[in-house]
Amino acid sequence: MSIYKYTAAQLYSWLTSQEDMVVLDVRNKVDFGRFKVESPFPFTLENVSYFDFMEIEDECVAKVPKGKPVKVVCAKEGSAKFVAEILEKHGFDDIGYLEGGIKSWGNLLVPVLLNPDSDYQLYQFIRPGKASCSYGLINGDEMMLFDPSRNVDFYLDFAKSKQCKITHTCETHLQADYIAGSRLLAEKSGAEFLANENDFKGSKINYTPLTDGAEFTFSKPGGTVKCLFTPGHTPGSTSFLVDNNYIISGDMVFIQSVGRPDLGGQVDAWSDTLFDSLQKVKTLDDKLAILPGHYMDWQEANSNLIFTATLAEAKEFNKAIYAIDNKADFLAFIKGNMRKQPDEYATIRLINANLEHVDDDKAEELDLGKNECAASAYAAQQQEASK
After folding, report:
1. What pTM was computed for the model?
2. Which residues, at least 6 apart from 377, have a Cβ–Cβ distance to it below 8 Å?
3. Residue 97 shares a structural domain with residue 113
4. What single DSSP character describes residue 382?
5. Is 248 exposed, middle or buried (0-12, 13-18, 19+ CB in 10 A)?
6. What would you measure as the largest C-alpha separation in the chain, in angstroms?
7. Are residues 70 and 179 in the same domain?
8. Which residues are the active-site residues?
9. Per-residue pLDDT tens for 49-85?
10. 351: in domain
11. How many domains does the chain have?
12. Average pLDDT over every residue of 336-342
């Protein structure tokens, strides 16, 4: 088999179908450590620098297992193709290189239908490279989006494939860990941008302010969306109840954690607000399906590789957090599990408010990298273990 180019979507399919292969990442160790290909299932992942292949070719080739397909990954595509040619010269016969480089993996969105037997369709768009999720709600020829990423062409193409028009694009909060797509989608599609002014006042965005308790409907019955203010992660954090069956919770409620209230530098005040919001959430129907904005790892996915759990399940998993019954103890928990937020978060917030602009290369650099929006003992332990 000759050298071939493969896509991020193909790589995801191979990983989730547990194909026996080797993923060879030829970026330097720093970039590899910051952001890499991950899968819900074990697979062989090797990191051997492209520069080492140039200088000590034979030693590097010896590190690559033979007898399996090799999928080479690099920063932008060219280095992966170069290494693929070296491997072919050394007798490897099934070698692919990732089209577009690692950024194509970082921008990949995988649509999963959550309710196949309903009169409306609710999709979770999983972004494996970012451990994040956005959502699309379709009824007839209309579609609402929630927390779309900057890969706006995907959402436009998806809407076209479903023969519908994007009518609304909603933000659960002013994102800090990735560059949001709502503003660009609104500009390109004419969709109405909906956001909480407690986060977006002062932004240079033409948006419609949300109202706590307000409902949004389609032209046809079904898929009613109710706005629920749940501040704490940010002052304007908002959840969206879909037909009282699902809650799109943004970064406020996660499956295995809760949102962190310190990203704005006001941990004491925001911690109290987050505590109050959690008390509100605790009173909701335990059967509600949580649809989070992020996950920490693939262990949170169910058997269908979907990131969802009932509110009852989330409260049980996080019972130590939900059991805290006063603001002082909750603040102590938050401070005991805080991690330093990445330096780029301040810049991303400005970009998402349309107060700062960067070129595409800089946007890719800022946008890629895992989220740090959860507050949990697990997250703090993971950080300590990585030191």
Report:
1. 0.93
2. 320, 336, 337
3. no
4. H
5. buried
6. 66
7. no
8. 74
9. 999 999 999 999 999 999 999 999 999 999 999 999 9
10. no
11. 2
12. 79
